[in-house]
Amino acid sequence: MTSLSERLKLLRKQKDLTQEQLADYMGVSPQAVSRWETAATSPDISALPMLADLFEITVDELLGVNAAAKQKEIAAVIAEAEDQIDRMITEGPIIKLREALNKYPNNDRLLTCLMYALYAASEDEDLCRAYDAEIVSIAYRIHQYSTDNWCRNESRRLLFRHYCDTKRKAEAMQIAEGMADIETCRERNLYWALEGEDQVNHLRGRISDDLNMLLWDLWAFSVHAHLTEEEVGAFDAARASVEAAVNKLGV
What we know:
By secondary structure, this protein is mainly alpha-helical. The chain has helices at 4-14, 19-26, 30-37, 48-55, 59-63, 67-86, 91-103, 108-121, 125-145, 149-165, 169-177, 186-189, 196-224, 229-249. It has three domains: 4-63, Orthogonal Bundle (434 Repressor (Amino-terminal Domain)), CATH 1.10.260.40; 67-179; 187-249.
């Protein structure tokens, strides 16, 4: 893989520019360009979009990042982090995600996953206090600058839950007011745009989600409601029926 200095020199020559012409375009001295091309120094990060625009490539291409390899690496980091979080491992995912963000600082998926890892670790009261400002800051950054709707929605959901957990119910309710209701969400409406096997697979996934959510609702109700012994028996039977349906349908 070529270095940034080598790529800059190659791209400049392909564009038939002198160091002086590139320096004039970038608003720096010819000596600065020379130092870039000899790897004595590197362009400031704020200069990279301007360089990429001049050479008609992406910043990733300028930096020598293979897009497919980058996405594969990011997906692997996120999958490992989510698996560890599911297994109640908290510190490891945070460390790995921070390392990945040092390499890809503007990746919204990594940033959202870090927010999830911080939120999961916040079940510990001390960590909840320690991570509070960062959780809120990440949510604000994604809301203000991200164009990824999934990241925007997930960060909103996590911030809502975090505010609820930290007794900031007014802030939580303000976020809730901006959330889509169930009838307008993607999962409830995508069915109409699909056909054949895609439609069946979508319904299978939706049934799985609905049944698992019903199981969760039954559990939560049984925890918080003051049920009689007879009602507890009825809820246990209802949960068993739903679990049997999930197993039988294979969803």
